[in-house]
Amino acid sequence: MPVGEITLHGVSGDMSDFQHIQHTLKSLLMQEYKMDDGQKLGTKSVYKCIGHIMYNRCMKGDLLRNSYVIGGLDNGQKMLLFVDLYGTTYQSATGREDELSKEEAMQILDECMRVLFYRDARSLNKLRRAKVTAQGIEILEPFMLETN
């Protein structure tokens, strides 16, 4: 989901709850734009905002039933971030020197998604991949994950 220069790369859960977060982020970006102070919301800011929204809703007993994977670059630093429906946040260790090849990364990702598919009987094995680089975001066409 593009939100200005920020893209949410992986979202699962309820569509209306996702649209609520989408609307909230767009409103926040509009407020930032109106400030006209030259500042832009980065990947980590969007991650923290979603984390706070999800946690606050959880504490009120009114969960937004989504989980988010957020990827991007902040000042050249690679970021891969996760927020679940309880507002629990995780940040991966990115920017390693021994980076995986694109093929190795896709193989690992496919295996992870296959395991998740097997664990959730309501899920689908239709996926999309995205690659975040300094040059931009590349979102590939949907594909069917090979499963048993």
From TrEMBL:
This is Proteasome subunit beta type-7. It is an enzyme of class 3 (hydrolase). One of its GO terms (cellular component) is proteasome complex. Keywords: Hydrolase, Proteasome. The lineage of its organism: Eukaryota, Fungi, Fungi incertae sedis, Zoopagomycota, Kickxellomycotina. GO terms for molecular function: hydrolase activity. The keyword rRNA processing does not apply. InterPro entries: Ntn_hydrolases_N. It comes from the Eukaryota. Its EC number is 3.4.25.1.
